[in-house]
């Protein structure tokens, strides 16, 4: 227990992944992971700052938050850092006009962005939209540019829903990188800029924050590279082999969010 005290001392803010930590998405809005609704409520009552940091790119923030609230979570849209709004800001700042290879559910997030005569490609978790025709169109746009720009809303390999594991955007991103000889710019975890944005919105320094996620690379590794501590839950996409990852080791492994919150509330002030 003393080791936990040392690992969690000085924490003032908590970043929470959503899918695989709070709930498993799926038919009917998904299913909360046991104990997670109460764990979020206890965190918020504790006085610790809390922010939700997700790579969700199949749903708008408003729909995602609506689903979570219907499952009992105390969460508001302004507490969520997600890739689509960050990508829109980047596009506007750089004068980029995207060809969108995204899920229909998030297309509205780009309504204020000029998509005429594309000079870049934005790829997200398009789900069934990852057809050969759509991938090939994105490939053709990139190959037609003197300086191709590929922006990806995350680079996850897979994620978990109630029916099982699902292929994520990372594999499709890598296919376009390989075919076009371009390196994608990632907006979302594990991008340092994405984590820094979440920390700024929460108002804490990296050394005062802990990330809780189910992805050993995207959540844990990404947070640690920003100077944060990170715990991995054994829910969602967690695999036993994650605890022996050759490059990333979490600051702690816990069975679920409820256990992580128990430890935080016991030790953060020590």
From TrEMBL:
<comment type="similarity">
    <text>Belongs to the HAD-like hydrolase superfamily.</text>
</comment>
<dbReference type="GO" id="GO:0016791">
    <property type="term" value="F:phosphatase activity"/>
</dbReference>
<keyword id="KW-0539">Nucleus</keyword>
<dbReference type="GO" id="GO:0004427">
    <property type="term" value="F:inorganic diphosphate phosphatase activity"/>
</dbReference>
<dbReference type="GO" id="GO:0005634">
    <property type="term" value="C:nucleus"/>
</dbReference>
<keyword id="KW-0378">Hydrolase</keyword>
<dbReference type="Pfam" id="PF13242">
    <property type="entry name" value="Hydrolase_like"/>
</dbReference>
<dbReference type="InterPro" id="IPR036412">
    <property type="entry name" value="HAD-like_sf"/>
</dbReference>
<dbReference type="Pfam" id="PF13344">
    <property type="entry name" value="Hydrolase_6"/>
</dbReference>
<dbReference type="GO" id="GO:0005829">
    <property type="term" value="C:cytosol"/>
</dbReference>
<keyword id="KW-0460">Magnesium</keyword>
<keyword id="KW-0963">Cytoplasm</keyword>
<dbReference type="GO" id="GO:0046872">
    <property type="term" value="F:metal ion binding"/>
</dbReference>
<keyword id="KW-0479">Metal-binding</keyword>
<protein>
    <recommendedName>
        <fullName>Phospholysine phosphohistidine inorganic pyrophosphate phosphatase</fullName>
        <ecNumber>3.6.1.1</ecNumber>
    </recommendedName>
</protein>
<dbReference type="InterPro" id="IPR006355">
    <property type="entry name" value="LHPP/HDHD2"/>
</dbReference>
<dbReference type="InterPro" id="IPR006357">
    <property type="entry name" value="HAD-SF_hydro_IIA"/>
</dbReference>
<dbReference type="InterPro" id="IPR023214">
    <property type="entry name" value="HAD_sf"/>
</dbReference>
<comment type="function">
    <text>Phosphatase that hydrolyzes imidodiphosphate, 3-phosphohistidine and 6-phospholysine. Has broad substrate specificity and can also hydrolyze inorganic diphosphate, but with lower efficiency.</text>
</comment>
